[in-house]
Design goal:
single chain, 52 residues, mainly alpha, 1 helix, elongated
Amino acid sequence: MLSLFKSKQSACTKCGKEIANNEEAFAKIRYPEMNGMTAIKIWLTLEATFYA
């Protein structure tokens, strides 16, 4: 049975290297605009460095 909370290991799309826990990684995402995304916006503000 497929679990919604079962996480798969993330890997680099360029080289295929698995990304370890607490390893610095870069992700290209759109900044959320909806009000329901408040927790994600706070997490990004506290934990992310932004590049444009």
